[in-house]
Amino acid sequence: MNKLQTALERALPIVAAAYGEQFGVNVVLSGTDAYTDGETIYLPLLNAMSDLREVLFGYLAHEAAHVRSSDFNTLKKCKSPMEKSCTNLIEDIRIERLIQEVFPGTQFTLNAMWSYIVEQGMSPPATPEDNEATQLFQYLLHRLRSEVLHRDASTPLAESSQRVVEQTFPVGFFVRLDGLLGKHLDNLTCSDDCLKLARAILKALKDAEEEERQQQQNQEQQQSSDSSQGDQSQQAGGSGGSGDGESQPQPGKVDSSNGGDANQGTGDSQQSSADSDGNGNQAQDTGSGNQSSSAQGASDSSGDQGQPQGGNGASLHERLINETNLPEDAVGQLRDQLADQAREDNDGERVAIDTSSVGSDARNHGDTSSLKNGILASSTIRSRLLGLLQAQTRQKQWLHTRGKRVDGKRLARLPTGDSRVFIQREEMQRPDTAVHVLLDCSGSMNRIQEVANQATVSLALAVSTIPKCDIAASMFPGIGGEVSPILHRGQPVRAGLGRFAVCSSGGTPLAEAMLYAARELVASKRQRKVLIIITDGAPNNGGAVRYLNDLVAGHVDTYAIGIGSTAVSQYFEKWSVINDVKELQKALFTIAGQFLDLH
Known about the structure:
The protein is built from 19 helices and twelve strands. It has 599 residues and is α/β, with parallel strands linked by helices.
């Protein structure tokens, strides 16, 4: 396979069309937009593919996973911005893991996409300066992408984010979170399951806060009980002793002696109950393991998170639910960047190429009477082409002083000193060419459709008889799509002549037809690729046609035959115009002679 063919095979429209076909989704290449409407993926059409190629295909795989597996109504059921963000986050994990299982190759492009997102700073780690909702979201995002999808770019960000959230959220929340993720992540079967898990995570935070509040109340009650018992002991032993009992303050009064210190301690406990957990967590039961130090760290950061109400009168859970300042979706940021790049590359021109617009095969009408002139013209063209071909490929031979084959008739000349008795032959040259003919059958072709049909059938019959050449033909618009095959490569032409008698209707989706033809030519093993377009030269989207021309330049020889119009000159370098069947033979012979290199 030559390098030019490889480059064409890897071109964005070719690969996007193949991906869309493989994934079972509709893909439209757009010069200005990047989005998904639930059925069709609008992929930005970029010129510079060297840096963003794999990133773009990763984005395509991500959006294809959504189209294949997501219920776009689920997000409408969310009751808060945080719930919606968490649901979308979990859904991204679910659908990317699913498409990687079905199409393992997507793991590489999805990795490329996410690495680019991280490198561009579109998804940073959590920081102490972030609000609590942002901290939790970024922690979950990078943790799940690292642990579940094995996105290496997120691993250090997950570790960094964990250190931040451990200073903000109760220890009990992380215990519950680990349990929820371990139980449900591998059992997510639909988008609604992701919503349920998101709600369970937020409820786990509420439960952890309530648990910590209850623990603090119990701790304060225990401290109060211990203090009361100590006071009673002092009163019981102080009547005949040192006189400390006389200095013990009454409730609500502050004494200047040691009793004042005791009452100050009680005041600290009460203040802790109202505002924060203070140092109370250090007195928790040691059976909690390292929970005491983690909870202490959380207190240092948020201060008021340990109680149902903080400085603004809301619990940590309530603040998360009511938070509206949340991180922008990272893939959404990438989508916007790609769309901006596409608009720049295409100068804002609204280019649109539907890559999944192939309809059913053209019908065989049986009646070939309207093709009679084209069939007759093909005989003359074929005879002239074969004559030139034979003249070009006829072996030339001459005599040489060395070689492997001796001309016996020349041996008698050896005594005279003429040693040219060996026969040398020139290698035979034969064209090795794949041809695809595109036939315009749009409504504007109505009055000249018969001439166009005759030109197409003439080419098909003539080229199919040339050694080492084969031909395919398609019509646009097609039946049930933008393009439909008339003749598949390798099929006998005469058996399907009735398919060439097409009728005019619809628009002129020339760009989609050219993309289909390019894909079909790439699949051929022939060294030379030729595309012949028979049209009146008025496409639906001229910008898309110019883009496809630039795409195939250097890979495919493109020729255009304008039927009764010179409009083809605006889009193609190699073109000719015919107005009636009398000019058909000359035009077709000239074009065929060019791509067959017959002089």
